[in-house]
Amino acid sequence: MYLVDALPKEGKVELVLSGFRRLEVRTTFPVYLEELPQSVLYHPSVASVEEEVWRTLEGKERRIYRVELRDYGAYLQFKRALKVVNDFISPLDQALERLGLRPFARVEASGNRVISREEPGFPEVSYAKVVLYDWYGEHRLGRYYRLYYNGVMKEEGDVRDLRVEADVVEAPSTVLDKVKAIVKVASDRKRAPVDVKGLIIWSKSVRVLLREIMYATIGKALTVNEAWVALRKRYVIPKAVPRVEELRELEELSYADKGGLILFPRETCVDNAFQVDFSSMYPSIISKYNISGETVDRCDDLDLGIHKVCTKERGIVAEAVERLVRLKEFYKAYDEELAEAIKWILVASFGYLGYRNSLFGKIEAYESVTHVARKVLRQAIEVAESMGLRVVHGIVDSLIVQGSRERVEGMVAKVSEVTGLKLKLEEEFSWVVLTRTSEGQPYPQRYVGRRRDGSLKVKGLIRANQPRIVQEFLEESLRILSGAESCSQLRSFSKEIEDLYYGFRRRAHYGDPSDFVLWIKGEPYVRGARGFYRATDGYRGHDVDYYLSYLERAYETVRGMVP
Amino acid sequence: MMLTGFAELDDLIAEDEWVEFYSEDSDLLEEFYSRVIALSSNPFIKVLVVSERGGLDPWKVKTFQRTFGVEGRVLVRRAFKAEDVPPSVIAMGEGDLVVVNPYGFFRLYSHIVGSMRARRGRTFVFSPFDREKRGSVFGLHSAHSVIEVRRTYRGVRFRVVKSPSHAEVELVYPIQSLFGRSSIGLEAWL
Q1: Nearest C-alpha of chain B: how many angstroms from A350?
Q2: Nearest to A121 by CA among A327, A323, A321, A280
Q3: Which residues of chain B does A57 touch, with a Cβ-Cβ cutoff of 8 Å?
Q4: A453 lies within 8 A of chain B by CB
Q5: Spatial distance between the Cα atoms of A468 and A457, rounded to a whole number of angstroms
Q6: What is the rounded distance in angstroms from the CA atom of residue A474 to the CA atom of residue A451?
Q7: What distance in Å separates residue A39's CA from the closest CA in chain B?
Q8: Which tens digits make up the pLDDT trace of B104-161?
């Protein structure tokens, strides 16, 4: 049995286990108060009060009061009336952690005792995802459903026939009444970029009940992960942390406040290229250089160029991120989808460092990371060039280089040694097309590379908000171009692309209604004679000129790729 | 010494410790405070920018410094959320201070105004919205002068909404003078 959910009760917590089984465990709920009014001592729910010494994020000692509550309702009352701290992680989750009961850990009842055992990997719980669809695509108002059970497509049919039962189910809110589950996730309320399986692994990894995290942003997930580290180190976690940036000269600010390094490629197509990537570059920098809100510019143990870092104690963010990097590596060998879910948190952890509502970050920490990242990429470029490789392109944490495979492998090893960050050989391309804007300027984030096996790596070309007809035209064009073995061969496919274009132009007149759907903020639209209308209201014709001009622009982009 | 560079306007607010400029035209206001920062930067000026992102273009300030031939230091601090504003104002210490958009998060008005009232030295506040409709009323009461900045057909207009020493006055300047590009024109040949 696995712990799927928990419900606070009077003096106890009810554990909801996989297979809809329930267990009860006696506990109180810890609530931390900055001040202790006498009324708290009279409160009937208060079981005990302890004065404890914690510290602020600035490192100053702070006395706070740990109040053990029998009734969870009292916490909500305290939260409104008193200065409660350390509740970014709910007292329910803290009580569970104290009992050794972590979300999605294996739980066994032995007499009066409940024993929990954490297992690596994905828990043995049943999970399902319901997707509704219609002629325009997947949408909560669709009339048909597809049911994925434990990640495998199980059935599809009319939405009126839908019935599903599992421990955790993700479904559009319009059909949640047809679902029996311990935790029901309304997919249209979800803000996380992962599906139900990813949410389960988030809940397990950051040790917070799924119910509390299912509608949260990535920011909440990663801050919870950091908050556990802060609680263990006995830092008081306030609701908001006022930050005072250091006073800086204008020139200093212009120099420091920059993003990652991006090279503007000169060529439009190169043969025999390799792509090398730093593995989790920003999280690795945070971890390696101990970057965290409370370590940057606190003392001058380590000079990063624009800011100094204190290394006397491991930083909260650095420690939290390091744990996630390890988890991601573990899941990568086990299940790519789980690694991807953790990767989302890692990707956000850097940006969140400089976000105004970040509890454990600050702008100087953010600047330090981008500064080191730029330095590291420049070092990598220098090493590559010193080894006779030609650097064609570079974006933040990856480079495209030309040269022999042996040299590239040598460069990868040397850069990893010089920078202390893991560089890996990601791709080997027969050719890479580096596109340009319609004004002829380089477009660094949009490129297409052909792997040796004929498959393509496409970045920034096919977007979610393009009409389906345009997406298909681009996909088909790229499939044709993938037949080329070198840049010079690309030209020979011009005629084929042109024929394809004219075929799609005809389709712009007489195509299927689904060809004209484009998605804006999760809603399907069609461009009609009087502007855009919602596809969910039914197909009411389309504006042929709009789709023709869109296709023409896409065709120009593809033509621009042929040297 | 803080200056707007418009002689009549500078005379009008010369005695005021706390002056608030506001405009619904945020682009115009940005040009104006970049100019004020540049003109006031000799020997140095402290600036607090309250914004989640952006708010001050260093190159624009540099351009104005070059245009007006001012050499000086601009010391900048940023506040990214409402809670950051009061401690950041306090950390600025005494002396002249430019605060860009202090009420921009539309929260904690009393704390923010309180921190600005407590400081010693001149404070110029720039708010990119209509202060007669939005923002801190306490701030409006506390400011000695409140001046609306508006773009006219060919110029920029300053309307003194509140002043301890003057009635409602309007000053209009050609737009080129905002950028330090005005000249006396053909009068030079007279």
Answers
A1: 16
A2: A327
A3: none
A4: no
A5: 20
A6: 18
A7: 28
A8: 999 999 999 999 999 999 999 999 999 999 999 999 999 999 999 999 988 999 999 9
Task: Identify the residue whose tokens are 């009635």.
Answer: B167
| Distance (Å) from the alpha carbon of A251 to chain B's nearest alpha carbon | 8
DSSP code for B149: E
Q: Taking CB atoms and an 8 Å limit, are B84 and A363 in contact across chains?
A: no
Contacts of A241 in chain B (CB under 8 A): 83
Nearest CA in chain B to A356: B80
Q: Which of A563, A250, A295 is nearest to A432 (CA)?
A: A563
Sequential pLDDT tens for chain A (563 residues): 899 999 999 999 999 999 999 999 999 999 999 999 999 999 999 999 999 999 999 889 999 999 999 999 999 999 999 999 999 999 999 999 999 999 999 998 877 778 888 788 899 999 999 999 999 999 999 999 999 999 999 999 999 999 999 999 999 999 999 999 999 999 999 999 999 999 999 999 999 999 999 999 999 999 999 999 999 999 999 988 889 999 999 988 888 888 899 999 988 899 999 999 999 999 999 999 999 999 999 899 999 989 999 999 999 999 999 999 999 989 988 888 899 999 999 989 888 888 888 899 989 999 999 999 999 999 999 999 999 999 999 999 999 999 999 999 999 999 999 999 999 999 999 999 998 887 888 899 999 999 999 999 999 999 989 999 999 999 999 999 999 999 999 989 999 999 999 999 999 999 999 999 999 988 999 999 999 999 999 999 999 999 999 999 999 999 988 86
Evaluate whether A130 touches A145 at the Cβ level (below 8 Å): yes
Which residue has tokens 């031939």? B69
**Confidence at residue A257, expressed as pLDDT on a 0 to 100 scale:** 86
Alpha-carbon distance A428 to A453, whole Å? 10
The amino acid that residue A442 corresponds to is P
Q: Does B15 touch chain A (CB under 8 A)?
A: no
B59 by DSSP, 3-state: which?
A: helix
Q: Given CB atoms, is B83 within the 8 Å cutoff of chain A?
A: yes
Which residue among B59, B77, B81 places its CB closest to the CB of A247? B77
Distance from the A66 Cα atom to the nearest Cα atom in chain B, whole angstroms: 26
Query: Chain B neighbours among A 352-391 (CB < 8 Å)?
Result: 356-357, 363
Fill in the DSSP letter of residue A514: G
**A484 touches A492 (CB < 8 A):** yes
3-state DSSP assignment of residue A75: helix
Which of A241, A247, A363, A366 is the best residue to mutate to test the B interface, defined by the most B CB atoms within 10 Å of its own CB? Answer: A247
Q: How distant is the Cα of B179 from the closest Cα of chain A, in angstroms?
A: 20
Closest-CA residue of B relative to A242 is B84
Q: Cβ of B59 and A254 within 8 Å?
A: yes
Interior/surface letters B20-49, b for 16+ CB within 10 angstroms, e for the rest: bbbbbeeebbbbbbbbbbbbbbbeebbbbb
b (16+ CB within 10 A) / e for B139-178: bbebbbbbbbbbbeeeebebebbbbeeeeeeebebebeeb
Three-state secondary structure of A452-496: CCCCEEEECCCCCCCCHHHHHHHHHHHHHHCCCCCHHHHHHHHHH
Measure CB to CB from residue A249 to each of B75, B79, B91 and give the nearest one: B75
Q: Closest partner residue to B87 among A244, A248, A253, by Cβ?
A: A244
Q: Which stretches within B119-180 are classed as H helix?
A: 137-142, 175-178
Contact check, Cβ <8 Å, A250/B83: no
Q: Which helix (H) or strand (E) holds A72?
A: helix A72-81
